[in-house]
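Hey, resending since the last one bounced:
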Amino acid sequence: MSGRLRRIAIDTAPLAYPAYRRLFVGQAVSFVGFQVTAVAVPVQVYDITRSSFWVGVLGLVGLVPLIVFGLWGGAVADAVDRRALLLVSATVTWAGGRAPLTRRR
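The structure tokens again:
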């Protein structure tokens, strides 16, 4: 490989490790799914309502929690111990992901 091409090429050496390869492929699939959802939901809202206004409202409804919780989360992250925050947030994420899988009788 020439010197110029080597500088701009992507380093594929980490893909030699199976664990990293699985992580890379999983992240890629997740990203594609996210992008498909980001396109499909507004298209579906437009198909149902035939109104660009409601597609805009959908965007606004998605943006407001991001701004509010982003500012609040930043303030919390600055005020508490980072390790404790990571432990609590990971536990809440785990519990939230596990809750739908728990069968109640």
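The helical segments are 3-8, 18-49, 52-79, 82-98.

Sorry for the duplicate.
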